[in-house]
Amino acid sequence: MMKTRGFTLIELLLALAIFAYASASILKMVSQSAQNTSMLEKMTFASWVAQNRLTEMRNELIWPPKDNLKGEVEMAGVTWFWRQTVTETADPRMRAVKINVFESVDGVDSTYELETYVVQQQQSSGTGRGSP
């Protein structure tokens, strides 16, 4: 009787199971990478919205009032909603500013939060640089 060389059915099934497991792991990794990229993109745009709002507030050149402001802005084809909260601190010349950015108008889950402190600027006396 002639002996043939080859794989048995058990060996083939085992190899197929190993291949299926490896393929599923790779597919899961690619899927998670895509989700992470999407989340990172959202976080980046939301941080830009918050930083833009902070810059607008600073450019107004007024001491920020202790109140809450809301607004919306479009960036990257998405409408972002922001809420600015200004609160007092222990130092009367300093205020805490918190800007939350949301993807939905209901403002439930914040995509990004920026918190900083602003200091009240001293009024110039006219004797500083640039004065005659």
UniProtKB/TrEMBL annotation:
Q: Which residues form the Type II secretion system protein GspI C-terminal domain?
A: 40-118
PTM summary: Cleaved by prepilin peptidase.
Please state the protein's primary subcellular location: membrane
Q: Name one GO biological process term.
A: protein secretion by the type II secretion system
Q: What domain of life?
A: Bacteria
Subunit note: Type II secretion is composed of four main components: the outer membrane complex, the inner membrane complex, the cytoplasmic secretion ATPase and the periplasm-spanning pseudopilus.
Q: Which family does it belong to?
A: Belongs to the GSP I family.
Q: What does this protein do?
A: Component of the type II secretion system required for the energy-dependent secretion of extracellular factors such as proteases and toxins from the periplasm.
Name of the protein in its database record: Type II secretion system protein I
Q: Which organism is it from?
A: Psychrosphaera ytuae
